[in-house]
């Protein structure tokens, strides 16, 4: 992509409709992910991913993508970012042993407790969502245009610490996988909460730029000041867009599009990771923004239009029916498919009453983001970007991935030909995936 064309890239390609440019899209889903349970009263519910998957099936979108069941991430994969002691702790801790004397200090050390509880299958859950994100990154390395993992996007986890319902930072692991074949990776976060774990991991490098649009102030995790811009070689490669409560579609896009156009022009990434946390939607149980589903999805549409390999991940989102609506609609955007508003009848249909529609009504909450404030934020961010040299040059050498190739999902393939997930087969050749016979857009 030439710098001169990158700035206008968001408007150059139609993302939906009959003239949409086709993309090779793959989708990662573990049928077990909806069974994990953080505990009674906890707002994080992996069941939302199962609800999303059901909607995708009944809208006919699964037949338009290559569907993979991910390999669980191995210790060696998780320890590419996380500490050995931390991963060993997650692997061994159980609800039955967490109060044992030898674990009490470690629970405090690794910040595992109320927000990040110990529950049955915790480590398997981490392996599942992290394995899906790393596998999705691999498919981009191998030639797909868009890869999707709605179970991922857990952006708060630190190298040696759980945080904000997140145990393993699948995003960091996926970006590390992308960096094996891509010189520069852009990370964009539209969760209502600041993407602190990802920013921290890449704060001193110029190979990864992080851009986070989030509520800032007296709000978890309390980081993401506009003055936090990176350090050393990473100076100006961390961008934070601090917002106030009640921001609506129009105000959000007044910032998102010009900022991301300039980012694409100056940084010129070889791959983009977009964290699509749905807690920035209107009416979220923990959120405080006022975005519609179409307004939220406009970010996906815009980043898709640059025609750069794109990894779409989940994240926050605590009003389950709206999370499923959002990620289903955004899967349609990735595929270039406009979905009818009337929801198809399916096993979770009653969750979506009384209107049973795909879109949601935004509230009449006050937008506390004044136009003058938004303009000031935009000017500061664009000024920081102007201090960057175009597309940093790096020494770069392709290397073989260490992670396993994911397998096609059992619902899409002959069950008698399924791969043994315990296989030690790994990829050593950088080859494009063969075209699927399934239709894609």
From TrEMBL:
Protein name: Histone deacetylase
Originating species: Zizania palustris
Domain Histone deacetylase: 42-331
Cofactor(s) this protein requires: Zn(2+)
Class of enzymatic activity (EC top level): hydrolase
Biological process, per Gene Ontology: epigenetic regulation of gene expression
Family note: Belongs to the histone deacetylase family. HD Type 1 subfamily.
A GO molecular-function descriptor: histone deacetylase activity, hydrolytic mechanism
């Amino acid at each position: 992509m030439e710098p001169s064309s990158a700035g206008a890239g968001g408007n150059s390609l139609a993302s939906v409709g009959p003239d949409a440019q086709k993309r090779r899209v793959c989708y990662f889903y573990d049928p077990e992910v909806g069974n994990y349970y953080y505990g009674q009263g906890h707002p994080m519910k992996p069941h939302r991913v199962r609800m999303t998957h059901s909607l995708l099936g009944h809208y006919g979108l699964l037949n338009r993508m290559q569907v993979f069941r991910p390999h669980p991430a191995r210790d060696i994969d998780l320890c590419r970012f996380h500490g050995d002691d931390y991963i060993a702790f997650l692997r061994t801790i159980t609800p039955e042993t967490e109060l044992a004397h030898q674990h009490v200090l470690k629970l405090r050390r690794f910040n595992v407790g109320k927000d990040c509880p110990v529950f049955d299958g915790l480590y398997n859950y981490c392996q599942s969502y992290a394995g899906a994100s790393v596998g999705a990154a691999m498919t981009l390395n191998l030639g797909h245009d868009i890869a999707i993992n709605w179970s991922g996007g857990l952006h708060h986890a630190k190298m040696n610490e759980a945080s904000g319902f997140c145990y393993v930072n699948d995003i960091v692991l996926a970006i590390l996988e992308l960096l094996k074949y891509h010189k520069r990776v852009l990370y964009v976060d539209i969760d209502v909460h600041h993407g602190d774990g990802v920013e921290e991991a890449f704060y001193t490098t110029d190979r990864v730029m992080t851009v986070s649009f989030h509520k800032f102030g007296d709000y978890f995790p309390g980081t993401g000041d506009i003055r936090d811009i990176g350090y050393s070689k990473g100076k100006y490669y961390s961008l934070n867009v601090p917002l106030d409560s009640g921001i609506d579609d129009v105000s959000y896009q007044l910032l998102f599009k010009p900022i991301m156009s300039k980012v694409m022009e100056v940084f010129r990434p070889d791959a983009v990771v977009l964290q699509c946390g749905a807690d920035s939607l209107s009416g979220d149980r923990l959120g405080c923004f006022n975005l519609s589903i179409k307004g939220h999805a406009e970010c996906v549409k815009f980043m898709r239009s640059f025609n750069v390999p794109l990894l779409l991940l989940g994240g926050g989102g605590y009003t389950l029916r709206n999370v499923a609506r959002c990620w289903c609609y955004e899967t349609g955007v990735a595929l270039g498919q406009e979905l009818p508003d009337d929801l198809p009848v399916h096993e979770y249909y009653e969750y979506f009453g009384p209107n049973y529609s795909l879109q949601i009504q935004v509230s009449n909450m006050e937008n506390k983001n004044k136009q003058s404030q938004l303009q000031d934020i935009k000017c500061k961010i664009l000024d920081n970007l102007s201090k960057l040299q175009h597309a940093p040059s790096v020494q770069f050498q392709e290397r073989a991935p260490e992670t396993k190739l994911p397998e096609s999902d059992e619902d899409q393939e002959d069950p008698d030909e399924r791969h043994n997930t315990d296989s030690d087969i790994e990829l050593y050749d950088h080859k494009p995936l063969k075209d699927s016979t399934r239709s894609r857009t």
